[in-house]
From TrEMBL:
PROSITE patterns: RIBUL_P_3_EPIMER_1 (PS01085), RIBUL_P_3_EPIMER_2 (PS01086). The gene is rpe. InterPro entries: Aldolase_TIM, Ribul_P_3_epim, Ribul_P_3_epim-like, RibuloseP-bd_barrel. It catalyses: D-ribulose 5-phosphate = D-xylulose 5-phosphate. This is Ribulose-phosphate 3-epimerase. Its cofactor is a divalent metal cation; Mn(2+); Zn(2+); Fe(2+). It comes from Mucilaginibacter straminoryzae. Gene3D superfamilies: Aldolase class I (3.20.20.70). GO terms for molecular function: D-ribulose-phosphate 3-epimerase activity; metal ion binding. Catalyzes the reversible epimerization of D-ribulose 5-phosphate to D-xylulose 5-phosphate. It is an enzyme of class 5 (isomerase). Its EC number is 5.1.3.1. Substrate binds at residues 8, 66, 142-145, 175-177. Keywords: Carbohydrate metabolism, Cobalt, Isomerase, Manganese, Metal-binding, Zinc. Belongs to the ribulose-phosphate 3-epimerase family.
């Protein structure tokens, strides 16, 4: 499949959020990545339901909601009602991951699980068949604009191998430090959804940057 581009609005200008969402609507972006941080699972707080709902009203692309929060079961329904198309929870934040994944599907959303850089891919072997997507963190979650961790390539290859056996339709999303220089390599090892925050929103021409990420040379 052709890879998907999911710009992260964590790097948008919150004073001009409507303008930035409208830019994404006009762009070749496939999804809009929405980072929710609770100040507990990660050492940062981003934004919550009122912002998500406002974004959902304007956005013309699916909202890919990445929950960096402890015990996400408490809020799955609210995120689904707030306009999430897909909900991704962290492996490290869920004691009963199977229940959480079923809850996401029951709420009518696509279900994803995210792995921190230190979390091995094979821990997903018993749940991978139930997932729509796995998100591999290529930085430590919490902040945009960090340096890409090279070991991610190995994890993508391992995940691809596991998915080939258990769930060939699985989407493999990479989040953190994605740019126009590593996008080709990431796709060639098996990534098919690429999140990009700073690369898009710090670019002189974000529309052009999204086009470059979507159609790498
Ligand atoms: C990090 C977030 C990412 C972040 C990516 O915790 O999950 O989605 O916005 O930002 P960049 O692309 O700037 O590394
Ligand atoms: Zn994210």
């Amino acid at each position: 499949m052709n890879h998907l581009i999911a710009p992260s609005i964590l790097a948008a200008d919150f004073g001009n959020l409507q303008r930035d969402i409208e830019m994404l609507n006009q762009s070749e972006a496939d999804w809009i990545h929405v980072d929710i941080m609770d100040g507990l699972f990660v050492p940062n707080i981003s934004f919550g339901f009122p912002v998500l709902k406002s974004v959902a009203k304007i956005a013309e692309k699916p909202l890919d909601v990445h929950l960096m929060i402890v015990d996400p079961d408490r809020y799955i329904k609210q995120f689904a009602e707030g306009g999430a198309h897909g909900i991704t929870v962290h492996y490290e934040a869920c004691t009963h991951l199977h229940r959480t994944v079923q809850g996401i599907k029951e709420a009518g959303c696509k279900a994803g699980v995210a792995l921190n850089p230190h979390t091995p891919v094979n821990l997903l072997s018993e749940i991978i068949a139930d997932l729509d997507m796995v998100l591999i963190m290529s930085v430590n979650p919490g902040f945009g604009g960090q340096k890409f961790i090279h070991n991610t390539y190995r994890k993508i290859a391992q995940l691809k191998e596991l998915a080939a056996k258990e769930n060939p339709d699985l989407l493999i999303e990479i989040d953190g430090g994605v740019d126009q220089f590593n996008v080709n390599n990431l796709i060639s090892v098996g990534a098919n959804v690429l999140v990009a925050g700073n690369t898009v929103f710090s670019a002189a021409d974000p529309l052009h940057m999204i086009r470059t990420l979507k159609n790498p040379l």
